Amino acid sequence: MSTFVYMTRCDGCGHCVDICPSDIMHIDENIRRAKNIEPNFCWECYSCVKACPNHAIDVRGYADFAPMGHSVRVRREEEKGTISWKIKFRNGTTKDFVSPITTKPWGKFIPKLAEGDKPNQGEINSQRLYTEPEGLNIDGELPSVPKDSFKKGVYY
Amino acid sequence: MLNTNPFSTLAETVSPVAMQSFIIAMVILIAAGTIIQMISHRNLTYFFNNAKKAKLNATKELGVGEKVSIVAKTTVYDIGTTSELGFGKRRLAHVLGMYGTILFWVASAVLVFGYTGAEKSSSTIWSMIWHIGAILTCVGGYWFWFFLRVDVSAEAHPWYRIIKADLFVLALLACATFGLLWSYTQFNGQTGLSYLFLTLFVVSNLILFGGIYWSKFAHMFYKPGAAIQKNLAEADGSRDNLPPPADAPEQFGLGIKREEPKHY
Predict the structure, then answer these.
(1) Which residues numbered 38-57 in B keep a CB inside 8 Å of some CB on A?
(2) B165 and A31 in contact by Cβ < 8 A?
(3) Active site members of A
(4) Residue B244 domain-assigned?
(5) What residue ranges do the domains of chain A occupy?
């Protein structure tokens, strides 16, 4: 149940593309608006939902978050330092929450990515994500599963 | 050059009626392309369904006066200054391109219908507006195209990668650029070049207005509609299911400063 984008609200600013830890939020080539290119790989971290300045991204959350059929909408207000949540259950009940964007001083415990080295085109085009494999504490290559070892058919 | 009506000079070889017919044909193409796209992509259905949902979720009934006031405010601020793009370079480039294009198109129609022909007077002001509109379109458009496009700025694609979404902006830039070059070469008496640029100007207009079904041209009609719907939904309490604005800012202290999305 991955993220999806309301096209009438999206203005193609690129904040979701920038923040997605799975690198699956990208820009559509036909209308230059954001889209989730690989819904199966979305782990619902809500990063893009919170980062979107136009509240254009929505998620159908897992059942462990709220019963199926609910809607979660998020309003991020940077000037107030708050993120407000509205969960609308399938029976119409709504619950509102407000939480801080961060409880720690901004930048102190968060990597200052803007000050990092700019990647070259090869790194940009690579399948690897930022800081991989060092960030995973792996020496050498990322572990992989050979395709011929996959079972045939659908499995989860 | 800026004070000269390029269509007036052209009228020595091309009939003003032909020019007027061309503009009318372009207007028909705009209407036809947008209507066909709306039917095919079901944009209107989406808008109406959204409006229905908002009405069901509304916590407050808006009066006619309130609605008119919201629409007026949205038109002046949200649409007139493209506020959805935030405060920054993207908004400035869009405003330059938007007003440049409006001036360019309006001045084209005024010059062709009002000041082109054997017994017609000349208008320095409208000629200036036509050129300034084209220049503003080029400044905003090329700035966007080379530096601000999200595929270039956030996705790190090279500027020369062309996608279908570029059809509108490239055709518009071609119109403004070839229009200016045609005016310049015609003013300097470079007949061959002026006809070349005139041909390119006409072709780029045909692509811009004839390609509406495939391009992002109609966003200039959809985006204002979406902005009005969004602000009406905020006012009537439905808010597209969004939570209300937080009312306890002091509890959480200062917010953060958003960085540019360029962390590729």
Answers:
(1) 46-47, 50
(2) yes
(3) 43
(4) no
(5) 3-142
Q: Count of domains in chain B?
A: 1
Residue A67 tokens read as: 């019963």
pTM of the model: 0.84
A8/B222 Cβ within 8 A: yes
CB contact under 8 A, B150 and A13: yes
Residue B229 lies in a domain: yes
Assess whether pLDDT exceeds 70 at residue A105. Answer: no
Residue B225 near residue B71, CB atoms below 8 Å: no
Domain A3-142 belongs to what topology?
Answer: Alpha-Beta Plaits (3.30.70)
Q: Do B240 and A86 touch (CB under 8 A)?
A: no
What's the pLDDT tens digit per position in B209-252? 999 999 999 999 999 999 999 999 989 888 888 998 888 655 55
Asked, for residue B254, whether it belongs to a domain, the answer is no
Count Cβ–Cβ pairs < 8 Å, chain A vs chain B.
135
Q: Which of B226, B41, B85, B157 is nearest to A11 (CA)?
A: B85
Is residue B111 in a domain?
A: yes
**Residues A91/B260, Cβ–Cβ less than 8 Å:** no
State the best of B242, B251, B258 to mutate against chain A, taking most chain A CBs within 10 Å: B242
pLDDT, tens only, A52-97: 988 899 887 777 777 888 888 888 887 777 889 898 888 889 899 8
Give how far B18 is from chain A: nearest CA, Å.
34
Domain range for B123? 6-238
Most B-contacting residue of A47, A98, A109 (CB-CB within 10 A), to test interface:
A98
